Automatic annotation (TrEMBL):
The keyword Glycosyltransferase belongs to this UniProt entry's keyword annotation: no
Residues of the ABC transporter domain: 2-237
Gene: glnQ
Organism: uncultured Sporomusa sp
Localization, UniProt: Cell membrane
GO CC, one annotated term: plasma membrane
Keyword terms: ATP-binding, Cell membrane, Membrane, Nucleotide-binding, Transport
UniProt cross-references to Pfam families, sorted A to Z: ABC_tran
Membrane topology: Peripheral membrane protein
Protein name per the record: Glutamine transport ATP-binding protein GlnQ
Signal peptide: none
Length: 255
């Protein structure tokens, strides 16, 4: 279980995350949404201290990540997968080597690392691309390598920071399909920052809406998007209605 208590982050005079509290159950998928600049990325990055929060507690299975010494932090980070918007693959390494690299650097022997990396790449449907280099892959495939890199650690918690944001719409789908499968399989607890409404509607167990650094609303998609209680929630509701109406009208026009 992940328990985030009073998480707070200030950049100079700007409060980016303002007393954020959230409890995430094992295997749950929480989607964090909100307007640009409301603090989603900063929140998710403070969980494993890619960004050092100003104060708060992040308890993963009872241990406070924010109070950990470097050695302990390094160990706990092996149990937390992070998928970024930019895949940051190493161009001269193959797909397999890119996924193996972190494991080997973390002390896993090469044979075990190769086994785990192959298994992770198979989970994301890239078992036939092990020897390819990043420039031989599409953006969607490159992001799937990024996902496999996180999965290879068999993480108990996966943090996703806008994993589809740098992909064109056709490639977005292939990444969302992989994410959806992972969420349904409940292999790990997932916190996903995304603007992908369809994914949020279909896959999230819980939606957390943020505005100006604070949580303004949370609940199941059917609550937040159907009976919103916040302005941000109402804006998403209108957007969903608009998209559904537009699609219905264009379908009707084609008949
Ligand atoms: N390293 C930093 N130094 C100073 N200010 C920062 C830093 N990182 C983020 N901020 C500011 O903190 C606020 C929250 O940023 P954050 O990236 O967390 O928002 P976000 O909701 O993820 O936005 P987006 O959806 O556009 O990615 C913004 O005002 C941003 O400019």
């Amino acid at each position: 279980m992940l328990v985030i208590q009073n998480l707070y982050k200030q950049f100079g005079s700007l409060v980016a995350v303002n007393d954020f509290n959230l409890t995430v159950k094992l295997g749950e998928t929480v989607v964090l949404m909100g307007p640009s600049g409301c603090g989603k990325s900063t929140t998710i990055r403070t969980i494993n201290r890619l960004v050092e929060p100003s104060r708060g507690r992040v308890m993963l299975n009872g241990a406070n990540i924010l109070a950990m010494e470097p050695d302990e932090l390094r160990d706990v980070r092996k149990r937390i997968g992070f998928v970024f918007q930019h895949f940051n693959l190493i161009g001269r390494l193959t797909t397999l080597e890119n996924v193996m690299l972190g494991l080997v650097m973390g002390g896993t022997d090469r044979e075990t690392a190769e086994c785990k990396a192959t298994e992770a790449l198979t989970k994301v449907g890239l078992e036939n691309h092990l020897a390819h280099r990043p420039d031989q892959l599409s953006g969607g495939q490159q992001q799937r390598v990024g996902i496999a890199r996180a999965l290879a650690y068999e993480p108990e918690l996966m943090l996703w920071d806008e994993p589809t944001a740098s992909l064109d719409p056709i490639l977005v789908r292939e990444v969302l399909v992989v994410m959806e499968e992972l969420a349904r399989y409940r292999a790990s607890t997932m916190i996903v920052v995304t603007h992908e409404l369809t994914f949020a509607l279909r896959v999230a167990d819980r939606i957390v809406l943020m505005d100006k650094g604070s949580i303004v609303e949370e609940g199941q998609p059917s609550e937040v998007f159907v009976k919103p209680v916040s302005d941000i929630g109402r804006q998403y509701q209108e957007l969903i209605e608009y998209q559904m109406n537009t699609q219905a009208q264009s379908l009707a026009g084609k008949r």
